Amino acid sequence: MIEEDMKHPSPIALHKALERVWGTPPGLARLAAVNHNIIGKRFMLTALSFFAIGGLLAMLIRTQLASSESAFMDAEQYAQIFTMHGSIMMFLFAIPFFEGVAIYLLPKLLGTRDLAFPRLTAYGYWCYLFGGSMLIAALIGGVAPNSGWFMYPPLSSNSYSPGINADVWLLAITFVEISALAAAIEIMVTVLKLRAAGMSLDKMPIFAWYMLVVATMMLVGFPPLIVGSVLLELERAFHLPFFDPSRGGDPLLWQHLFWLFGHPEVYIIFLPAAGAISTILPVFAGAPLAGYRLIVAALVAMAFLSFGLWVHHMYAVGIPHVALSFFSAASALVAVPTGIQIFAWLATLSQGRPRFSVPMLHILGFLFTFVIGGLTGVMLAIVPFDWQAHDTHFVVAHLHYVLVGGFVFPMLAAAYYWLPHLSGRQPVQHLSQAAFWMLFIGFHVTFFMMHLTGLRGMPRRIFEYPIESGWETLNFISSMGSFVMTMGFALVALDFILLFRFGRRHRRNPWRAGTLEWAMATPPPSYNFASLPSIERRADLLDPDQLGSQLASGKGYLGVPRHARMELLAVEMLSGTPEHVVRLPNQTFLPLWTAAATGCFFLSLLFKFYWLTPITFASIILLFLLWSGDTAEKTDVGSLPVGRGRKLPPHMETARPPSWWAMIFALAADATAYISLLFGCLFLWVSAPNWPPQKIPHVELAGPAIAAIALLVAAWAGRSAAARSPHAIGWLALTGFAHLVAAATLLWLAMAALPDPRSHALVSSVFVVLTYAALRSGLGIVISGYGIWRIRSGYVSQRRNVDLRLGRLWHDFSAVTGLAAAGFPFVMTILASELSR
Question: How many angstroms separate the CA atoms of 645 and 682, rounded?
Answer without folding.
Answer: 59
